[in-house]
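[Automated response] Your request has been received and processed.

Submitted sequence:
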Amino acid sequence: MDKFCENCGAPRREGAKFCRECGQPFPQAEAVPVEAAPKGIEPQVESTVPVHPELPVAPMTTEPVTEAASTPAAEPTMTEVPAPSDVTPVSTPSVEHSAPESVDTPVEQAAPIQPQPEASVEMPVSTANDASQAASFTEVPPATPVPNPVPNSFPPVVPPAGNIPTMQSVNGVNGTTAAATPTPAWNEIADALESTGKKKSKLKLPLIIGSILIGLLLVGGAVWAMISLNASSSNPALIYVKDKDLMLSAGKKSEPVKAVNKWLDIDDSIKEDYLNVSYYDGDSGAKGMEFSMLGDGIGRWIKFNKSGTRMFYLGKVTDDGTANLYYNDPSKLAKSKKEDIEPGERVASNVSIGANRYAPFQISESGDRVLYFKNYDEEEYSGSLYINDLKEEQLIDNDVYGFYFISKDESTVMYTKAADSDSYNYDLYIKSLHGKGDKVKIDSDISYVVNYSDDFKKVYYVKNNGDIDDLNYNSLYLKEEGKDKQKLISDFTSIESSDQNGVFYFTRTNEKKTKLVDLVEDDMAESDLKITEPHYSDFEYEDTYDVWGYEYTSTEVDYDKYYEAYDLYMDKLDRDSLRSSLKEEEINTTSRQLFLYSAGKEKELSNNIAWVNFADVANKSVIYSKADTEKGPVGKIKMSEIKSLYDVRDRFEGDSSDMMGKGRYIILNDGQEQEIAGEADDYYSFQFSGNGKKLYYMEGAASSTSGTLVAYDVLDGKLSNRKVVDENVSYYMILSDVIWYYKDVKDGKGELDSYSDGKKTKIAFDVEVGSTSIYPEDNTVLYIADFNSKRHMGSLYLKQGQGEAVKVNDDVSFYNYDKGNHLFYITDYNDSKESGDLWEYRGKDQKKLIDNSVEAMLPLRVGYNF
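Generated structure:
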């Protein structure tokens, strides 16, 4: 599982669903992004949360109930094959971790559980350009590092990128980070944040952004999400759009059927607002983006139950952000001979699709219950949450924020409402989804949820003291069913990693304030005491001159010496003023301490930390940089060397706050500190293998776009046997202990290789970065080579097992894969018409034209794209 944010390079905290620096969802697979200097990164992969032993059920404080919500399911993403002009080889530097400044922003560490932008679950449609926009689910704290690409029942709150269905297209990386791991659609989440909180005042937006991080940081609970069509079928139906109609193709013998007439005949503004589709005017770098974005977008409006017997979809979408919700039977549709099918059974009207643009509604695994919002106020980020059993709808609560969590057994919902106080915090509730029981308040005025057990009987959350100037203003609480809340950790800065069993890596910040005057040696004090204000009389002299034989005497002023003295005097006045300011002004220097909380006790692991690069409670490992105090200035700066306060700040504050750190250190199994890497201006991205027996990382100059991929053996709690895997690597990803990577990347193309058991295998040359999708459970790899950026097309290859790669077709812009030979792809894509020909690949020399003028495909399968 990746340990860094793929978007900004910030370190991933164990159990975190979103990056605390930029909000990007984390994958839960073992994908590894390249990490850069002071900002971290991280991809995603699905994993299961450790199940808690059942706790005694005791009554909690209850109140009359009103509504609840289910965690938004992330949507599979369509990925495009990157056009060289579009692909910006992600320079490893962009893959690093958070810089020390994060210490000053504790709120970011664990996102508050406020209304969040919808998590997105995107289905697989591959593209090179869309790599960075791959769908994302909320991530679950990994119980084991081994990726589990296919979601069981509900995908995690924000499924790891690896679990994100990906439609590959030819637009690939699209200039985003250089992480070589499944890519989540954080761009969409960021857009959602912007759109849902565009005019919010009162400081709520920052909290909401944090909230999305936290909501997704939570794992444990299952998420009512979109289930891929292939969840139970070996030959799933394909959903696509043609002429604004929603089309369905199922079975090799049946012809496509029109499922909904003019389903997508809506204004472009609605697509932009609710499907995250942007329209470009002739920008070659954006070719094909509409196709992939639209495919990802419709994945939010269409969901299937696990058995594939019910297809839920939104229809009759209005400008005010509401729609009707319907469901139909795909198998009956496929057999229908009617050309135009009327909308299916209507489940609900006036569903608020703006409450969570990435998951406007959620369905249970069986498809017999649906959760959605009504009357959602995008200014207040809240609305009325309903559950519907397809017979009647029941109000869960009013004024619920647009993000919620569902327990693993789908019996309980956890959600937040605005706190009664004016603190901009939230009140946390849980409520049963069966019957009409009362809601139970967990606590008031919480900042964010950190973790919880699958059944919500244990909830770990953070409250703050309201003093934003206090760097250690957070406290961690546990609320256990039937018991009073318990404060576990007081006065901390950030939680770096956590699990459901109450184990946490966390930091505290030590702040030292120093008066600037104490940093300056006044070597001018004595001489300045002798300097007084000059007067003309001080520089007068007698001058004698002769006129016609007569001698005259006059009093003159030596202006040169006067002005010289006056300049010295003015300099002295400036220094006096500076002395006064130095006595008033001060600088703050900070350092952090790293702690482990386990079994109810705190243990200090290290101090003088610059920042934490990686932390994983599950692997009992933490990697960090130390504050480089040795390189700080020695002694005081002289008064004669400065002209202003800034000269002092630049000398001392710059050196103390710009603590990129000294080296990289690791602690394994809570043992001794060990140095693993050197220079602070290099970048590193760390990732453990699935079995935890190897540590991989990228190292190289922060200014470079590539680096050296290195492996260590993990033996007896220590690192040993450093080995170079390969040089000049730009992107890499780890799946099932196999490393996939690009090397020698130039103009968005490079050599695609794999590494396993000490053996390197060359897969292909001239592969478009961002166009590769890997399906480890099928031992299948798809990629696009020989890509022509002007035509937005390349050659699609399929490699299965140890066999040679097979060319599927030339002139391919997008592909959509399920198991075996079930592969769909788009050829002859026309940028002006934003459509192309849809083909099905059925094995060597077996291809069938399904339809032409296809505008979008609903991704079929979860895949790892990079």
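Summary generated for your ticket: Residues 28-234, 280-286, 655-659 have pLDDT under 50 and may be disordered. Residues 693-865 form one domain.
If you did not submit this request, please reply to this message.
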